[in-house]
Recover the amino acids of this structure.
């Protein structure tokens, strides 16, 4: 609850929401978005759209997994650590897409500028695929992995309903 107390010569808010950058979704104080090379704006989604400008941001800047030093290792940890094994693809600053199992994934570290991570999953035993989620902020990666995993698991259960009953 945001309660304000105003009086002569002073203004006090019990809690003020921090201003959020609409590009990186960090607080404006913590925003690391670069200046647009066309107009000089920082953190303006309209500028990014108008100038087709995609800043180099590092979505994995805060990854902190023990024993994970490359994008390949991160992808394997996600795949092996979830019941329905979501896959991940890095979209680099130049637009190149790198699947976590590719040879190039071993060259991507937490210091590599990554513009987006795509999270998706195939559903074993069916022709279905979970919805692919495009993640543009590092704090949303875990949520996307969980959502894709739950979606894939639900589809797997639906595709394999009654499978055990046929053996009896």
């Amino acid at each position: 609850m945001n309660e304000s107390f105003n009086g002569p010569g002073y203004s006090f808010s019990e809690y003020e929401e921090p201003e959020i950058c609409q590009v990186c979704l960090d607080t404006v104080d913590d925003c690391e978005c670069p200046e647009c090379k066309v107009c000089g704006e920082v953190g303006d989604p309209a500028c990014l759209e108008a100038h087709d400008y995609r800043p180099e941001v590092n979505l994995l800047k805060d990854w902190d997994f023990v024993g994970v030093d490359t994008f390949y290792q991160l992808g394997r940890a996600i795949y092996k650590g979830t019941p329905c094994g979501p896959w991940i693809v890095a979209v680099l600053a130049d637009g190149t897409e790198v699947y976590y199992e590719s040879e190039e994934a071993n060259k991507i570290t937490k210091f590599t500028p990554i513009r987006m991570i795509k999270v998706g999953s195939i559903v074993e035993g069916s022709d279905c695929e979970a919805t692919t989620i495009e993640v543009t902020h590092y704090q949303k990666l875990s949520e996307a992995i969980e959502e894709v995993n739950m979606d894939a698991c639900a589809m797997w259960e639906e595709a394999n309903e009654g499978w055990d009953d046929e053996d009896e």
Remarks:
- The chain has two domains: 13-55, 56-160.
- The longest strand covers residues 114-120.
- Residues 56-160 form one domain.
- The CA atoms of residues 3 and 14 lie 6 Å apart.
